[in-house]
Amino acid sequence: MSVAIVRLGTPRAEGEGLRIGTVRRPPRGVPKVDFARLNYYDVWYPNLAPSVELVKDGLAAVDDQAWREFVKKYRQEMSQPENARTLDLLAALSHQTNFAVGCYCEQESRCHRSVLRDLLGERGASIQIL
């Protein structure tokens, strides 16, 4: 059992399980009834997405220093009690069932999902490497 970190809208891995969209906004131009069928997500959970302001900072982070500042601020957001409890829950669930969390960004290394991977790992999650 494990959690996979994925790019939303990509084909699902065999046995991936429930896909959770940790994004601020649903996919544009896609009817809600098609989100799961088109491999975006089964459940939308924007609570683990960066705040609207921070999303802008992350997208504008063109150098390592700006990216490190984004990571610092995103980690601060995720340390809020409600977010920290969600991360703890997902880490625990990763030992009981397969599921995935993801975002739309093409490059994981400059996406909040790379930080989510680290945060879940720090909480002892079983993380599937795809």
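The record above closes out task 2.4. Task 2.5 opens with a second protein, given below.
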Amino acid sequence: MLDIKSNRVGRKYGVKEQILRCLWGIVKIGFRLVPRPFFGIRRGILRVFGAKIGRETNIDPSADIYFPWNLEIGEYSAIGASCLIYNLGPVVIGSRSTISHKSHLCAGTHDHTDPSLPLIRSSIRIGDDVWICADSFIGPDVHVMNGAVVGARASVFRDVLSFQIVGGNPAKVIGIRVFKN
């Protein structure tokens, strides 16, 4: 039987992180109000909260970044409209990668084998030159390697190798990415 009461009384966050969460909750309102073309202002706001954001990275104002201090993004990457970056643990996105609109990167889960369902802070790594297509889900502890493509609405629960194209739920290899010269 599940022991939800134990889960709710357990400490999931330290004092410093609780304070940062509260401050980010307030500042996030302003983050969303910054007009779309002013990507530099949003990059600056995220950097103030500890995110490591490369130059010329574009983040849509409607993107929901849970913990900026657990986010690292390379240069010339993009986070699209209504993306959810649930980064309880570190989420690292390489350079020139695109996370398309309504995608969900989920770097947190619970231990379903423990009746108190303790929180697990996982990580996600997205390589360089990756395209996460619209409405995709990337689960905890997944590594999408350089040049890979995750098809629209795919659900990824295992690593995706370099230049693989995956699709479906659960995601399966459906092709190999080849660049035209």
